[in-house]
Amino acid sequence: MTTPHQSMRGTVRLATEADDDAIHALNYRTFVEEIPQHAPNARRRHVDRFHEENVYAVYELSGRIVGMVSGRTQRPFSLDQKLGSVDDYLPAGRTPVEIRLLAVEPEFRASRVFAQLVGFITRHFLANGFDLGIMSGTTRQLRLYRHLGFHAFGPLIGTEQASYQPMYITAEEVFTWPEALNNGAEAPSAGANFLPGPVGISIAVQRAMQRSAMSHRTESFRSQYRAVQQQLCDLAQARHATMLMGSGTLANDVVAAQLSLLDAPGVIASNGEFGDRLVDHATRMRLPHTVVRAPWGDALDYGAITRAMHSTRARWLWAVHGETSTGVINDLTALTSIAQIHDARMALDVISSLGTVPLSLRDVWMASAVSGEALSAFSGIAIVFHDSQTCSASNHIPRYLDLGFAVEQQGVPFTQSSNLLDALGTSLTEIDWPARFQRIAKDGARLRRAMESRGWRVLAAADHASPAVHTLLPPSGEQVSTIGEQLRAAGWLVSFESDYLRDRNWLQVCLMGHYAPDALRAFPLALDRVAAAASARQRGRTFAEASSQQPEHG
């Protein structure tokens, strides 16, 4: 983090311990001698009371520190101590950092040093998950602060000799700064993978995929298989997990095959494309079933499901937990309760929810998942969770769909890929799952606010929406296919080409894989630029078409 970045004639960089004396000296000259905030001392050095908690950026010119600024994330902030909790003044749902101790030697104040220091420290904290900067801006520079996008809040603080205005700036406003202010700062993200699959993959998982393959018959492979099984069960709070080579579709076929062995009627609940695919699985497996549908984007109708279970004497219930097509999270507790009341088996598709939200499969008979998508690894491993280790093999179902046979073979009845298994195990190990769930929830809320403020509607209402899957309806007149193609050309991968999205002119942004912390903050502005360009082109075509239809005058 201390690699210097050239900026104008000098260098903007993060400070090291070797800079401490220069920082204390500049602090003294600025906030003791020039702006009388602290008492003088013989050493002519002032150590900030939060020095050990501060992150400093400095501007160095020919070996001399001529400017500095610091950021601090610990609460209470100094402004909290002066105004009471500043949260009452700030936009809700943000993660603030306090920018302090902005000081530039007098002979350099007419240059860009001031703005570049602010730009550098702000970008640094944006890249580390903070999306709001607050500061006490000297009243001498209010015009400049406002020009940069800072907003004043609360009363003036300080003294007549040193008067300050509390101010804040949002991440969105920082990303609109001209490039000159970012010279020396961490560059804005140039793209990211926000697909539901294939998802963005971390470097560690990519390296695991590239390691030499091992035979699936070796004890080393089986030992690794058992370790990944346990990791999956711990994550899903499930009793057992079996992995097979294949996709989520295969996992659902395996579940359907097990349902066929019950030889009993069931109910399938659907409120999207993947609920409807469960109906297709059941139909192909010739399962006797009743379908209870809700409109796409709505929550399931749990009363209707209960009535259907009762009237058909259903012995099983099958549903999707995280409906990828619409971004709806269905109520797992409600579904399992309905199954328990009717003494029925609960089957669940958790392909898009396992890994993005906390969940427990303790009351679920069988569930399907996949190594890609929300588990942030490569696709290719179908996962079936089950509540019993003693599934019975049966010659009534296809060999590869026979979960009982796979369990008898300790999960490895046929050829499997050690590379895919290694990559999945690496992803499960490297991710701090509670922290990931919190980050996705926070990032999802931020994305929702950003999209709604731009006229895009999120299909799923907030009270039943997945934080990781955002199905977006564009402002009137916008063509999603054009916007999606332009985003892709600029390095932003979003979903718009699936038939169910294309047919409805929907765009989808998913937070399932690996992405840089600042990428999501940059995305809305990238979308603004692409949408504006698409609208301009459309207006140009409309004008040209209208002109071509005008009668000619001789």
CA gyration radius, whole angstroms = 29 Å
Terminal Cα span: 71 Å
Q: How would a crystallographer describe the biggest sheet? A: 9 strands, mixed
As residue ranges, the low-confidence spans are: 1-8, 184-188
Count of helical regions: 18
Q: How many runs of DSSP E, i.e. beta strands?
A: 23
Helix % is: 25-40%
- Structural class assignment: alpha/beta
- Report the mean per-residue pLDDT as an integer: 88
Query: What is the beta-strand fraction?
Result: 15-25%
State the oligomer.
single chain
The dominant shape is elongated
What does this protein structure show overall?
This protein has 554 residues and is α/β, with parallel strands linked by helices. The protein has 18 helices and 23 strands. Strands 1, 2, 3, 4, 5, 6, 7, 8 and 9 form a 9-stranded mixed β-sheet that branches. Strand 8 and strand 9 form a beta hairpin. Helix 8 packs parallel to helix 14. The radius of gyration is 29 Å and the shape is elongated. The termini are far apart.
